[in-house]
């Protein structure tokens, strides 16, 4: 007699047939054909060298040897089912924790958070402010942020949209500018954030503006620690700010801000970063929702 274990698929077919008393019922439960279960049972008879079932009317009953095998196999599969059920319940009941930079959270995600919760209640979404420019905070399920190459080495990065940046100002301040040419911005105080020092140079270069003029204007400008404060300063008419278009779209639609000098695309992308062992089903549903919201 062989001392190696028989195939798990054969033991599974045996356990289902023994529990249900029917090859047909076992095949239905396992979503396979009647013939497939019969072949698995026959392979077990050959493996052990004894018959495990005998016919009884239209059904099957265990032989003495079959009862011996069922005592161990039935208990083992019951424990497997319980373990899988508990794990699945734990994973599905755990909240999905999404890390997000404060400015993106405050100006884009929070206004849409109610729609997200209504669309995906099973996520049990919890949102935390990311405390680093890099993804992978402890205990987070995903990170939503703008990333620039080189991309993170670990995990999976799902690109959602290209980043565009634009120079924005309050309508009153914009009216006072000569908006026909971007150079008119330099007659006003430029607002910037330390976290994105490359934003103004990228925009100015795309507009064909002189770097030296920009450098002088920035020296006379005002910096802010966070994009959120920067944009609010622009709304208050303190100067002209440079910001991701996504974060000011609602202000542009409402008329709180205007962007008469246009926008440019940067190398950055809005991405959803997923850790290596992310829950695929929950991550995919969030990705689909984000894409539809951004397209809308």
From TrEMBL:
PROSITE patterns: HTH_LYSR (PS50931)
Domain HTH lysR-type: 6-63
Keyword Cell division in record: no
UniProt KW Glycoprotein keyword: no
Keywords, sorted A to Z: DNA-binding, Transcription, Transcription regulation
Origin: domain of life: Bacteria
GO molecular function per UniProt: DNA-binding transcription factor activity; sequence-specific DNA binding
UniProt record, GO biological process: DNA-templated transcription
Recorded family membership: Belongs to the LysR transcriptional regulatory family.
PANTHER family: HTH-TYPE TRANSCRIPTIONAL REGULATOR (PTHR30537), HTH-TYPE TRANSCRIPTIONAL REGULATOR TRPI (PTHR30537:SF74)
The protein's name: HTH-type transcriptional regulator TrpI
């Amino acid at each position: 007699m062989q001392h190696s274990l028989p195939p798990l698929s054969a033991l599974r077919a045996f356990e289902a047939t023994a529990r249900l008393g029917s090859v047909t019922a076992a095949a239905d439960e396992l979503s396979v054909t009647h013939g497939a279960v019969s072949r698995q049972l026959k392979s077990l008879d050959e493996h052990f060298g004894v018959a495990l079932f005998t016919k009884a009317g239209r059904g099957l009953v265990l032989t003495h040897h079959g009862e011996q095998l069922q005592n161990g196999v039935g208990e083992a599969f019951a424990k497997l089912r319980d373990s899988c059920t508990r794990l699945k319940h734990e994973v599905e009941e755990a909240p999905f924790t999404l890390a997000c930079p404060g400015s993106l959270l405050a100006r884009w995600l929070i206004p849409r958070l109610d729609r997200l919760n209504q669309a995906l209640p099973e996520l049990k979404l919890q949102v935390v402010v990311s405390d680093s420019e890099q993804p992978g905070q402890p205990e987070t399920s995903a990170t939503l942020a703008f990333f620039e190459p080189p991309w993170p080495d670990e995990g999976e990065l799902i690109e959602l949209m290209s980043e565009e940046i634009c120079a924005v100002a309050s309508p009153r301040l914009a009216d006072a500018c000569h908006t026909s040419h971007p150079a008119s911005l330099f007659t006003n105080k430029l607002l910037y954030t330390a976290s994105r020092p490359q934003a103004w140079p990228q925009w100015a270069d795309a507009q064909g503006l002189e770097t030296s003029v920009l450098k002088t204007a920035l020296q006379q400008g005002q910096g802010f620690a966070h994009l959120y404060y920067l944009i609010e300063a622009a709304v208050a008419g303190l100067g002209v700010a440079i910001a991701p278009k996504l974060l000011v779209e609602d202000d542009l639609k409402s008329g709180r801000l205007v962007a008469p000098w246009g926008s440019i695309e940067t190398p950055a992308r809005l991405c959803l970063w997923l850790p290596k062992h992310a829950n695929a089903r929950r991550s995919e549903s969030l990705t689909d929702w984000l894409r539809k919201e951004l397209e809308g």
